[in-house]
Structures are given as C-alpha cells and as structure tokens.
Design the sequence.
C-alpha cells in the first residue's frame, strides 16, 4: 500500500537520551516535513526537506536534527538538548499539491 | 503576528446547520491553502485545497479564498456529529522551499 509510515507509534525516552523517530514514504514525494503537536495546540514545523541531502530549519528546530539521505526516508532525532520533548510528532510528505501525514509517534519522557 | 491565525473555538453548531471556519494569513505572496480535519489523538487528514480566489466545492465542503483580504474559509453544510473535530488551516509560504505552516486549529462541535 502507498503511504507514509512512522515508527514507533509510542516511544519512551529517559532524561538525557537521544531518540530517533522513523518516517518512510513510498509515494515518490519530493518534500517531507516534521511537525510537533502539544496537547490542544496546532502543528509547529520542526524541519522540512525538498530534495535529498537538503533540509531547512522550521520554527522550532532547536534540540532536533534530521537527515535526508534517501528520497523515501526523513528520520528525526530528538536530542538531549530538547528540554521538553514530550509531544505528538507528525511526519508528512508532499508532491507539491498537498501534504499527507503518517500516523504519528507519541513521545514521552520518563 | 502569527503567520496563520484561526479562532480556537470551540465552535458549536446544531446538526444540519452550516459551520463556518475562518483563517487569516500574513504572507501576501502565499499561493496554496489547505484545510485539514483532525480527530482527537489522530493525525490530520486533508479535506480540501484551494489556489485561486473564489469558491471551491467538494460535497458538503466549500473552501473560499480572498487573497486581497488574506482570508480563507471553510463551510460545512448539513453538519453531522461525525464532523466534530479540530479543523486546521495550512498555508504554503513562499520562499523557495515550500514551507507549509499550520494555524492552531478550530475545534468544531456538532450537537444533535
């Protein structure tokens, strides 16, 4: 099936740990995005990428890092520098017409 | 000024009524506008997109765009309880990198 796959669905992180959230798409989309959503809030842009090996910081990039080594993949690393990482993380991809989302990863710091 | 603004709601309408959701944006050069629906705990799903001034209809949904006023709206006719969700407005910000920015969303409650 074509779509966007995020894994894991739930992730628990200890204080001071780095964790990586996976996002894979088989839609042949050029653009990919990472958003963060806090309870009762909208989506805030973390990073976005238009082509392989190129990406741009969004509005809240501090404490996060990404890579875009393959068109299909856009993993997000939440580093220990991100002081309040508990949130719902959403990955999206776009052909340039509209963006479509994966099912999200819910990250909790324990 | 936020790039994309929406009234957080909740907007409460009776079943069968028209729900009107509004969105304003700050970047006058923006070209593409999107409406997403998000149920609690789920990821957003695309309802409609619009590029040109005027109205675009799809079933019970109508998107309206007024670029001069930097205003986008979504009308939902014959509202159903299943339409109860948060509606997110998104704008493609110009700048060469296809930056997609979302508003904070409007919560819609349709009561029987």
Sequence:
């Amino acid at each position: 099936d074509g779509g966007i796959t995020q894994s894991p669905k739930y992730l628990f992180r200890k204080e001071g740990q780095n964790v990586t959230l996976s996002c894979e798409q088989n839609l042949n989309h050029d653009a990919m995005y990472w958003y963060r959503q806090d309870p009762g809030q909208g989506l805030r842009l973390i990073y976005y990428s238009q082509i392989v090996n190129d990406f741009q910081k969004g509005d809240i990039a501090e404490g996060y890092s990404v890579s875009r080594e393959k068109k299909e993949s856009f993993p997000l690393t939440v580093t220990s520098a991100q002081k309040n990482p508990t949130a719902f993380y959403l990955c999206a991809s776009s052909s340039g017409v509209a963006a479509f989302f994966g099912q999200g990863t819910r990250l909790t710091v324990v | 000024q936020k790039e994309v603004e929406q009234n957080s709601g909740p907007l409460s309408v009776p079943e069968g009524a028209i729900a009107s959701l509004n969105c304003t944006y700050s970047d006058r050069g923006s070209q593409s506008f999107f409406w997403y629906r998000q149920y609690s705990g789920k990821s957003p799903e695309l309802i409609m997109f619009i590029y040109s001034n005027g109205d675009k209809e799809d079933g019970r949904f109508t998107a309206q765009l007024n670029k001069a006023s930097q205003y986008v709206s979504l009308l939902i006719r014959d509202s159903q309880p299943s339409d109860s969700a948060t509606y997110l407005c998104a704008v493609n910000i110009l700048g060469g990198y296809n930056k997609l920015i979302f508003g904070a969303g409007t919560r819609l409650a349709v009561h029987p």
Observations:
- Chain B touches chain A through 19 residues (CB under 8 Å).
- Chain B is about 0% helix and 55% strand.
